[in-house]
Amino acid sequence: QAVPAGSHVRLNLQTGDREAKLPDSENGKVDMREERRKRLGRVDVDSNSFTSQELKKALAKMKESEKAERKVRRAHEEEVRKKFRPIEQLKEEFEKLNVKMETDYEIMVKLIGKFNSSASTLDEKVAALYDLEYYVHQV
Predict the structure, then answer these.
(1) The pLDDT value given to residue 8
(2) How far apart are CA 136 and CA 60, in angstroms?
(3) According to the UniProt entry, which residue ranges have a biased composition of type Basic and acidic residues (predicted)?
(4) Which residues of the chain have pLDDT under 50?
(5) Residues 6 or more apart from 135 whose CB is under 8 A from it?
(6) From the centroid of its chain, how far is CA 117?
(7) pTM of the predicted model, to two decimals?
């Protein structure tokens, strides 16, 4: 059930129930009808009381907010694209500089190949396992 803002909420550890205390009015007494009216003012918890028009308006608002979120997401993606370049482009640029760039995955595949190779010595296999352990923890 919805709880109005400013209410005191606590968890009863004996029963496991959540309890809410409504704020007192100015004169110190709580008029339950008035508090209920305040509490249910804009949000009606009875699901049968919504009209189809209200539901349509709420759905339209949801669609509008979803469109706004998409616009924000697209703007963020464009901003990221401006700041960063794809890895393929970076690889091409590093090749022009005679620098070979490898991803962790590519290095791990090489290490597994070295470990499985019958041509590798025992020391090479042990070194491959240590290096592989490092990269696995990175991933």
Answers:
(1) 82
(2) 48
(3) 16-37
(4) 27-29, 39-41, 44
(5) 104, 107, 108, 111
(6) 42
(7) 0.36
